[in-house]
Specification:
about 25% helix, Tumour Suppressor Smad4, 2 domains, about 290 residues, Rossmann fold, 7 helices, 6-stranded antiparallel sheet, alpha+beta
């Protein structure tokens, strides 16, 4: 039976496009069927969606991988590339691991979003990284009331309120001063940006909670992963809950998240020495 891979690249980066052509040729020579149609219907028979691009391209691939239940594997041709698993220099090794079927699959929690308009119309969407409720293009700010689990917590004028997953905590949420959350933690983070209030600290809630925002004055718009937008005029209610379906990300190794954090953000580490545990005999001698 022929093995199938879906391959997509950044649509505007020439180096990514050229690399995708080379990778496609290699995989074809190795007996794979390589598809480039990244719709849910087209990817459903693929082992992987292989992405050559940045996090934005990976988020585009996730729009098809999520409903099809197909894992996404990214080779970073973007900037930070937190969702990517490998760099361009790793491509030969990536191809070999694909051939060997040597990868892990991790499950990433998503967000389901509903926007109830003043007339009762409900629009729904979802996000892997975050949902950002921001001021409308014609507004300087908008007045929001936020709450958790049906209970109002605070209201204020604000530019944006970001609701993120652990996966998205290193994206918009991080830029807004929100906490970095390890990806194996299932939670939701609500982070106000430029709010006119005393209580504007980020909130971290469990996966079974409901984050809620009421648009009290002016108009807002709701962005899902920065890719899909819903208008939220005055009187709208935005609710964010744990997504019914996760996104599957393929990993090539089980290195800890802390190492990725240091590498991607180029954090200034000194280099720890490996501490050799004392034997029980040494402990007994020191106590005698």
């Amino acid at each position: 039976m022929t093995r199938r891979i879906t391959l997509i690249s950044h649509p505007e980066r020439q180096d990514a496009i050229e690399t995708a052509g080379v990778v496609s040729s290699h995989l074809t020579d190795l007996g794979f069927e390589v598809g480039t149609d990244c719709t849910p219907e087209a990817v459903v028979d693929s082992e992987l969606i292989l992405v050559i691009g940045g996090d934005g391209t990976i988020l585009r691939a996730a729009e098809s991988g999520r409903p099809a239940g197909v894992p996404v594997l990214g080779i970073n041709y973007g900037h930070v590339g937190f969702l990517s698993e490998a760099d361009p220099d790793d491509i030969p090794q990536v191809i070999q691991q694909i051939v060997d079927g040597n990868w892990l699959v991790t499950t990433r929690m998503t967000l389901d979003v509903s926007v109830t308009l003043p007339d009762g119309t409900v629009h729904t969407d979802w996000a892997l990284n975050e949902t950002a409720i921001e001021k409308d293009a014609n507004s300087q700010m908008f007045e929001a009331s936020i709450g958790v689990d049906g209970r109002e917590l605070s209201s204020f004028k604000v530019d944006t309120v970001v609701c993120s997953t652990a996966t998205g905590s290193t994206a918009y949420n991080f830029s807004a001063g929100g906490p970095v959350v390890w990806p194996n933690v299932e939670c939701m983070v609500m982070t106000p940006i430029a709010a006119h209030a005393l209580f504007t600290r980020p909130l971290v809630v469990g996966p079974d909670s409901t984050l809620e925002l009421h648009v009290l004055e002016d108009n807002a718009r709701v962005w899902c992963d920065g890719r899909r937008m819903i208008h939220a005029p005055r009187g709208s209610v935005v609710r964010v809950v744990r997504g019914e379906a996760p996104v599957l990300l393929a990993r090539l190794n089980d290195s800890p998240f802390s190492g990725r954090l240091v590498t991607k953000f180029q954090l200034p580490v000194k280099g720890w020495r490996v501490q050799v545990p004392e034997s029980k005999t040494d402990i007994d001698r020191s106590e005698s």
